[in-house]
Design goal:
Number of strands of chain A: 14
Distance between the termini of chain B: 53 Å
Structural class of chain B: alpha+beta
Number of helices of chain B: 5
Helix content of chain B: 25-40%
CATH superfamily of the largest domain in chain B: Beta-grasp domain
Strand order of the largest sheet of chain B: 2-1-5-3-4
Structural class of chain A: alpha+beta
Oligomer: heterodimer
Number of helices of chain A: 12
CATH class of the largest domain in chain B: Alpha Beta
CATH topology of the largest domain in chain A: Uridine Diphospho-n-acetylenolpyruvylglucosamine Reductase, domain 3
Distance between the termini of chain A: 52 Å
Shape of chain A: globular
Radius of gyration of chain A: 19 Å
Strand order of the largest sheet of chain A: 4-5-10-6-7
Amino acid sequence: MKSFNYYGPKTVKEAVALLAELNGEGKVICGGQSLLVLMKQNMFTPEHIVDIKGIPELDYLNYGKKEGLRIGALTTHTQLEDSPVVKKEYPVFAEMEDNLAVVQTRNYGTIGGNVCHGDPAADPPAVFIALDAKYKLMGKKGERVVDAEDFYKDLLEVDLRDDEILCEVQVPPMPAHSGVAHDKLMVQKGDMGIVGAAAFVRVNTSTGICEDARIALTNVASVPFRARNSEKMLIGKVINEELLEEAGKLASQEVTPPSDTHGSEEYRRDMARVFLKRVTAKALARAKQAK
Amino acid sequence: MNDRLKDLKFKVNGREVELKINPKMLLLDVLRDELKLTGTRTGCEVSACGACTVNLDGKAVRACSILAIQLNGRDVVTIEGVADGEKLHPVQEAMVNHGAIECGFCTSGMVMSARALLLRNPKPTRDDIKKAIQGNLCADSGYVKYVEAIEMAADVLQEKR
């Protein structure tokens, strides 16, 4: 690994001031579970590393009935997975984490680092998009809150200005009669998804009509793919197998997946259909069960 | 400025350690090269094999994928710190007695993953054990014996309580 200048700010203010000073040359590290893999292979050789893992004010995980879940950037995957309140209010996170990498990585890797890495195959961004989460960013000029979906610009590129760090993920409370699910195609448990999907569905329990749906697919484009047109097909209707098949087919035509050793473009398109259907059906079943 | 050394003060196997390190040093480098604790293996070095697993504040982590400089004030236990003097930890004892160790390369990582599991979950199911060592590859594919040995160790630890 190439040497770098190391900075270990103790507050958000300090970190932001440092980043502003470094004028675009500073790279933020948190747990480093994604970043270090690139750095060790000299695929990425930053001159300046700003380490935010030692900023205590970013280490929290809070839930309130009104404001929902607030995930501080330093929250580890394991903390999210094991939190009793998260298990109760957002069981989808434990479902997601169970398939995310391995214990060792989850014990040190952070949610903030994961969502800022901008890997289109990553699971949390898709789940956050399905949950309509927002990211709180802090820069020299102050705070900015962006929709999770808008944060992703291109492969490994996110909407973070040179002087900004991500401080918090804000997940709204789950509406009544709604459900969320996540799943992905893996050769081995813990692999990055060859294709993955997260879906949120809200139903009217007396009519059975789908009142809202948010679906995001992973590893089928350079950013997490929001299947808006598929959602539109489902909203206002009673979801059945036929309708799901149509929604899945539509997404499979719209995605622009890569082709690599894990799967051809054609295969990924078809798996986008399969996983959209599978995960949306699971979210729907959960919505019907929910209070 | 690139080579400016930084202070690292943390606990390794119960002992306070103070060093000056290049900030690019990984925990694995510090353990093996600086502290000469070579029981922690250098395996794939890209977070795939788990041979470098150690315990950080009681949790299993990969020493090859952590900047050591981040560990100021933290508590690390390596395979050298698992036994109680000459007396093996029940996980080690069970692995030896059950013949779970084949070539031995992955063993220290397996022990560290098992130790972390039993610290937080003293009565693991077989599934819990499998998940705990999911990130530890054994090139001899000796997983079944490892799982059985960890089950035995959990029983021994239960009896001691």
